[in-house]
Write a structure and sequence with these properties.
Helix content is 46%, strand content 15%. By secondary structure, the chain is α/β, with parallel strands linked by helices.
Amino acid sequence: MPRVQDYFVGKTIIVTGAASGIGRATALIFAREGANVVCADIDADGAAAVVEQVKQKGAGGLSVETDVADRQSVRDMVKAAVDKFGVVDFQFNAAGAAGRWASFLEIDDALWDGALRLNATGVFYCMQEILPHMLKNGGGVIVNVASMAHRRGGPGSSIHYASAKGAVVTLTMGVAREFAAQGVRALSISPGPIATAFQETAGAGPEFLERSIADVPMGRAGEPEEIGELALFMCSDACAFMTADTVYVNGGGGWR
């Protein structure tokens, strides 16, 4: 939590992938703290529904249909956020997906290119479009969702996804170090298994999540809110000396 009471009141965050999962949970947590929340998602109806919940908490909200894999779409989203709220203080990049699970030799060009474009290039676009604004305003915080998968490599199912998330970790570190002296902090979070629809959208059955949880000493999947609360801390004034790092949130597992 922040050291200064009401630290987030009136500040603004952009959340990509805000319609569901970790993005949705994080949007609502920042709204709880009084921040304006820009909910960006390719699922326009889902983003609009989250904004209604944001407003019910007394916070300002804006939904923007956004394809993070398209630079112009990201540029338009950032402009809409600035036009609405004036200053964007934080960016939380949660938009991402595996596409589908596949063994290494089953990964075709479309799957590889799609995984890199959504998970890595999308973060690149979001960071590159918000950074000039943050630099103009004296700083800001960017938090990217990576994955524990980049430490394990994703053998047998998700090397394409793990590779893309590894790029997110490296991208975050590079940007953090390049702009640290200019007031911008950049961090990533590398979750283990989280209780979202992520596994289903990749075509993995329930046995995949069961195997993942079996490697977690706590014996459960994480909750999206547990990632969102960490993002809140990372963006707060209580975390001012932390940048460039990735934080593993995995219940003690994920290393085999």
